[in-house]
């Protein structure tokens, strides 16, 4: 609300997920026996999306990877009069090793629960298997049918083949997330003098575009904008 009041023309994208607010670090509600409760989670994701739309979000971005959440969120937004609010779905979000720096900063990695609860040690139950290529096509078809306006691939560089596959199989815009681990690797290598940071970062961003991405989310956004504008 503060951003919209101060910068009314800025497009605001918000994340829809439970992990920042969940004591065990998972994107979904976890039953005592360790099962992720898909439908119960989707209900709260819908409430979260509507709350964000009411605050002024232009696009809500479900990153949880629960089944059926895009359609449910679309119906919830429309029911509350937010037909103009778009959905950027995390369509192909992989159970990747490249999320580490972000999870450490947010303290959102899965955590052990109380003695009577079994907490899954990772998010592989609902995020995608890095070895599985074809699942992304099934997820894309489902998200498009449920009303997604933009589809995302996350992470970026290790999944350029998936970006290209989605680009070739939908007319929707494709976004890609240049995640914290990818950013940290470039930063660390540059700090050690192993590569030219500007050239390497801009090459990485260009690769996303070449693979078919229409939008790029990256921790390099401010620096890249300055480099592209000719600033040092």
Description:
With 232 residues, the chain is of the alpha/beta class. It has a single domain, classed as Alpha-Beta Barrel (TIM Barrel). Helices cover 42% and strands 15% of the residues. It has helices at 2-6, 38-55, 69-79, 100-106, 135-146, 160-169, 180-191, 197-211, 221-228; strands at 13-16, 29-30, 36-37, 59-62, 86-93, 150-154, 174-178, 215-218. It has a six-stranded parallel beta sheet with strand order 1-4-5-6-7-8. The mean pLDDT is 92. One of its GO terms (biological process) is chlorophyll biosynthetic process. Catalyzes an early step in the biosynthesis of tetrapyrroles. Binds two molecules of 5-aminolevulinate per subunit, each at a distinct site, and catalyzes their condensation to form porphobilinogen. Homooctamer. Pfam families: ALAD. One of its GO terms (molecular function) is porphobilinogen synthase activity.
> What is the CATH superfamily?
Aldolase class I
Low-confidence stretches: none
Determine the mean pLDDT.
Answer: 92
Domain module count: 1
> H/E series, N to C?
HEEEHEHEHHEHEHHEH
N-end to C-end Cα span = 34 Å
Write down the Rg: 18 Å
The CATH class is identified as Alpha Beta
For the secondary structure, the number of strands is 8
Q: So what's the overall shape?
A: globular
State which percent range the strand residues make up: 5-15%
The CATH topology assignment is TIM Barrel
Largest sheet: 6 strands, parallel
Query: CATH architecture, please?
Result: Alpha-Beta Barrel
Strand order of the largest sheet: 1-4-5-6-7-8
């Amino acid at each position: 609300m503060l951003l919209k009041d101060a910068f009314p023309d800025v497009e605001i994208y918000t994340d829809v997920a439970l992990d920042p607010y969940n004591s065990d670090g998972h994107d979904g509600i976890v039953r005592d026996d360790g099962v992720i409760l898909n439908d119960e989670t989707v209900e709260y994701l819908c409430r979260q999306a509507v709350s964000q739309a009411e605050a002024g979000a232009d696009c809500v971005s479900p990153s949880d990877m629960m089944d059926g959440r895009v359609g449910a969120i679309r119906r919830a937004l429309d029911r509350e009069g937010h037909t103009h609010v778009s959905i950027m779905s995390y369509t192909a979000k992989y159970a990747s090793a490249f999320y580490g720096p972000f999870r450490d900063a947010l303290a959102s990695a899965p955590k052990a629960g109380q003695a009577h609860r079994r907490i899954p040690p990772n998010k592989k139950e609902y995020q995608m298997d890095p070895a599985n290529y074809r699942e992304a096509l099934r997820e894309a078809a489902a998200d498009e049918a449920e009303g997604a306006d933009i589809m995302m691939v996350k992470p970026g560089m290790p999944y350029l083949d998936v970006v290209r596959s989605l680009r070739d199989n939908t007319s929707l815009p494709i976004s890609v997330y240049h995640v914290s681990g990818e950013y940290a690797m470039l930063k660390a290598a540059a700090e050690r003098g192993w590569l030219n940071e500007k050239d390497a970062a801009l090459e990485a961003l260009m690769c996303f575009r070449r693979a078919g991405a229409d939008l790029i989310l990256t921790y390099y956004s401010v620096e890249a904008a300055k480099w592209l504008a000719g600033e040092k």
